[in-house]
Batch of 2 targets.
Target 1
Amino acid sequence: MTSDFYCDEVFSGKTPVNVVQETDNVLAYHHTKPAYPVHIVVVPKVHIPSLTTLGGHPIALVYETLDVVRSVAAQVEADHGKCRVVTNLGAYQDSKHLHFHVIAGAMRAK
């Protein structure tokens, strides 16, 4: 069984989050275990396993997700002068649910 932190924990309310932006279909929130000084996660509320498995999902949902990513990234860039947008695939993807990280600053030491 694969892990889906977003469906199992965030959307169910089991894990509370600090919301940055939300639409009917997309949630952006501060990462619950940030690896960077600024670490925001943007995730569609409909289960999509990953970026490489978008086929068959409504293009409007993909557009809405990317629009929230754009909006959050623009705000982080305005506030910090720079940011990165990352999505992970395969073994790099801990939660098998499409999500984007909007990050700024140096990675925190573990």
Target 2
Amino acid sequence: MRVYMKHEILNLIETIKEAHKILKKLADKKRDADICQCLIQLQEAAIMTGNRIEQSGDDNTGVIHNLEAYCEEVYQYGEAKNVQHKKEILAKMEREIQIIKNKIIYEVREDKLEIVFMPYKADMWTSLASIWEAAKQDNECKVKVVPLPYYDIADINNVKFQYEAERFPENVEITDYREYSPEQSHPDMIFIHNPYDECNNLTRVPQCYYSSNLKNNSEMLIYSPYFTVGTFKAEKQAFMFTMPGVYHSDFVIAQSGKVKKLFEEFGHQSNKILAFGSPKIDAVIKNEQRKRIMPQAWKDKIEGKKVFLLNTHLSYFPKALNYAKSADNYAVKFHKEILQTFIDRDDCALIWRPHPLLKNMLAGRFRECLEFVNYFEKRVKRADNGIVDETGDYFDAFYCSDALISTWSSLINEYMVTGKPVLIFQKKTDAKIMQNSPLDRNINYFRLGKDKLTFEKFRDNVINQKDPLFEKRNQAVKDAFPNLDGLAGEKIFHYLKYIYKQR
């Protein structure tokens, strides 16, 4: 029997037991009309219980026979002529319903829990991966990964249907979304990393996969954010805590107690937010611990060199365009400077990992920026020491690189966990804002502001292994991510399983 069905049946039985108490009070007051109505409801509840058991196909304990006996006793109660006789029959009814409850608890075999992971972007799989690994190792669970299709709506005049099943890691067994229906299967748990539903203006899953529908077609919906929170500015980041999927989910995963408090400040109940750490940090820790093989296609370009990973956030070029006072805006300026600093050198190499939606978004709304981004991509690809990383995850880039250069992005948070140095394009955030943020990202190097470093100076420091902020940066990471043992996903899964089975 499915666990949720067993829960429903036991809840019905508890309702019947409560009705027995009401029946006794009605009998003491001789309210015959109400007694009659109560008996009808008891019969209906018993029949409903029997129907649920028959639907589950688990009637090998004789519970149906006990329910039939119970219904006969309910009938006899209605026919009883004196108070003493009614008390005797009610005692039989209570014994019979307890026998039924015990049989269901102790004799009805529970099916494996059906746990379903529904990512849509392969690049965001790390937000679910370590939870999936824990669930997959549990013999009491049947686990599926069902990547969702989505629409690329960045250019409303050129909407594209996308499906990324082939981009997930090879060890992840995929179930095609066309072969799985949450409505028909009604899984025990569904895990998602996309909270946006109709609110996303770049990508959007079909309506049948909106969080409201997934909640209705599962027993427990869990949202594990695809990002980690570093600097927090309410006016810019409130959306992280107010999207439909956050409200519809039964539980939300938070990377730390500080982030849990942010969720609570936006009105979410404390017991709904699980501050067990982020699966994304698990992924980084395991990646650093695991011996990886450098992709063969990268070897000739980067082997034996100091490798710099460049991360360009989705909004960097559009913001630069909006603020630009000339055609050569600051995003273009700094990316040109990157080319001059790193390209075609013998002592270092550059891996560029743009946001996976960058070109789509620029093509739809900021074509002025797209021309330069295409040029930048070609220059990096053509260079003897340049790579454009378009793989489904950033593990190879993290592993092979010695330092990160990035615009403001949550990827900085994860890279800081590696212990390697980070240079951020912009300037430091206001100290008061950073003090109230989950992660102090001011403990990095910056291209602008006080103590600024040029890309060239940062390059030379990394080549010469100079990193004066190493200790402070590592302490900031420890303060921000209390679970740095790589076991956050395992703890999350086992807690949720326990809570679910205790319902």
